[in-house]
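Holo prediction — S-adenosylmethionine.
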Amino acid sequence: PLENTAKSLPTILELIDGFRASKALFVACKLKVFDHLKDKGSLNAVDVANEVGASLCGMERLLDACAALGLLEKTPQGYSNTDSANTYLTSDGKYSLHGYIIHSNEHLWPLFTNLEFAVKEGTRQNHRAFGKKTEDLFKDYYHSQEGKQRFMAAMHSIAHLTARDVATAFDLSQFKSACDLGGCTGALAHELVQIYPNLKITVFDLPEVIANTSYFQPSGQCTAPVTFISGDFFKDNLPEVDLYILSRVLHDWPDEKNHTLLSKIAAVCKPGSALLVAEIVLDEQKTHPPRALLQSLTMTEGKQRSGSEYKQLLEKYGFMNVQIKITENLLDALLCFRKSQSL
Ligand code: SAM
């Protein structure tokens, strides 16, 4: 038995050290170490420290830690980016995770530092982490231009990575018009029009988000344009379309808010029209995947759900034939159809 128990020791040790590794990655990204090393061949610690304006001894340790974590290569000539650092950790790559990493450092890290209080009190810890009372989740994110830009960049980087799998989880070619409610920068919408060029798609989001979307638009793309409209999906009229999309929206809100939103969609959605939901779908025991359970610890008022819980929720609002696709990527997809009045 001790032998069996000892097998889990490396996992436990990795978990103990996990926070150091996360923070090393966050700081290297924040200091743009991977940007400085991109396309430069090998640089030594002095060059990187000078570029970044950091101490030599600090930078040397950070670069060695990044090499140990497999993010950099270290040779006698110096340090260079690995391929995955070039793809995911530089700030300007197509699949850059830089925005999400900066959001993790600036927003999630302070919240997780107060996890003990979050668990004891059962609430999000904005007041302790940021010295401010918790408001509506998005009012918190959007309180400053910098915070808003950071949150949008974080959403954009994950949406970009998952968009293809979500867009192709089901054959959506029967739909002529779609509206991505809470569609943020339009990352999923742009992927959808590439795959379904005849689809007219509108991104619906809060005015302060829509005002900032231009920065995130793909350049030189020859596909149908995506339209952006601003509004509040709890209050304003929703456009009439064949396909509604809710990507990473339902998990954010308490039941009453989801009730308002799903009732509004059901009211405007014609029989035969559909709703595509993109979320992480938990297994029925609700212990997998771990990243969904860890995300839950931020203690928003919403929650993560299993496949049968999503099915139950959607059916309650008249969305039937719920199909679930586990994508093995960061987001799964569900498609369901508004039942016809006669059913
Ligand atoms: N759908 C995007 C994705 O999957 O990357 C963004 C998901 S983000 C977690 C939730 C989005 O809902 C944000 O863009 C936010 O601005 C938007 N949102 C929040 N409250 C809203 C409201 N009342 N009306 C419209 N959009 C809202």
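READOUT: The longest helix spans residues 145-167.
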